[in-house]
Amino acid sequence: MNIIRSAFRNPPLLTFLLVALVWIVASGSLRGFGAYGHLRYLLELAAVIGIAGAGQTLVILMGGIDLSVGAVITVTAILLPLISPAWDPSGLAGIAAALTIATAIGLMNGAGAAYLRVPPIIMTLAMATFLQGLLVIVAGGSAVTVSNPAVILLGQARPLGIPSGIIVWLVVSIVVLLLVHRMPIGARFLALGANPLAARLSGVSVTRNTLIVHTLSGFFAGLAGILVLGMNRQGYVGIGDPYLLTSIAAVVLGGTSILGGRGTYAGTIPGAILLVTTTALITVVNASPGWRSIMFGTLILALLLVSGREARR
């Protein structure tokens, strides 16, 4: 009972317990669900949402929201094979160039929000719309195949039996948790999200921190795009679309307030795993795509009501 009470007072812990409960029930009722290979595969899929959700968490903590995450993932997945130079056999130059472009997009989002005073949700929506149109012109609706060895290694390698995407997610998680909870800049993000006026009067720069969170969001979205490209071996228009709403849902499922000022990336991690697990369970049901979407939306709403109960209090 003490664990249950503690969980309802701690949204990230509650989300972890929900993941454990779903995995236990599914493993006992569905053949092969609890196999190591299948659970490892679910974590590999969750890594993409978790990495994209890292930047989304930072933006939401400051009271904003990044609607360009899916478009940045798509831009990275499509442009990287096109801009990888032939003179670089390692493929690292192409990765660096793609991450630079993704980071620059995030910086432009931050500049629009900081200097033009455009609300982040509007700025990032406009950026996403612009990027989608640009991609249609550049790619023309056709898929591009990746031959970059570093990208392929990132998507396919399994050192010590662990997918490299999970390792990258682990590194990202450590960095973001240290950033939010052990560095002064994390306290500034939370202060600006909780009370922008008080934080500004205390000497916290709204402009600088807005630029930082959106730049980081662009970088993490680009990193997620590279991982998606490596896992799928090709990029196409719309490949990043599913990760926009799931990155937001993972953040909120983890107990982070959508209004900003309260939350932690420690909740986004199990939130991403819970979303992937829910999707895997729904695919088992022999239902039409429409009914699957309805079931997925209903389950997400129910999980949000449970995980957000204490936060609302």
From TrEMBL:
<feature type="transmembrane region" description="Helical">
    <location>
        <begin position="267"/>
        <end position="285"/>
    </location>
</feature>
<keyword id="KW-0472">Membrane</keyword>
<feature type="transmembrane region" description="Helical">
    <location>
        <begin position="243"/>
        <end position="260"/>
    </location>
</feature>
<dbReference type="Pfam" id="PF02653">
    <property type="entry name" value="BPD_transp_2"/>
</dbReference>
<feature type="transmembrane region" description="Helical">
    <location>
        <begin position="291"/>
        <end position="308"/>
    </location>
</feature>
<keyword id="KW-0614">Plasmid</keyword>
<feature type="transmembrane region" description="Helical">
    <location>
        <begin position="211"/>
        <end position="231"/>
    </location>
</feature>
<keyword id="KW-0812">Transmembrane</keyword>
<feature type="transmembrane region" description="Helical">
    <location>
        <begin position="69"/>
        <end position="87"/>
    </location>
</feature>
<feature type="transmembrane region" description="Helical">
    <location>
        <begin position="93"/>
        <end position="116"/>
    </location>
</feature>
<feature type="transmembrane region" description="Helical">
    <location>
        <begin position="128"/>
        <end position="154"/>
    </location>
</feature>
<keyword id="KW-1133">Transmembrane helix</keyword>
<protein>
    <submittedName>
        <fullName>ABC transporter permease</fullName>
    </submittedName>
</protein>
<keyword id="KW-1003">Cell membrane</keyword>
<feature type="transmembrane region" description="Helical">
    <location>
        <begin position="160"/>
        <end position="180"/>
    </location>
</feature>
<dbReference type="InterPro" id="IPR001851">
    <property type="entry name" value="ABC_transp_permease"/>
</dbReference>
<feature type="transmembrane region" description="Helical">
    <location>
        <begin position="42"/>
        <end position="62"/>
    </location>
</feature>
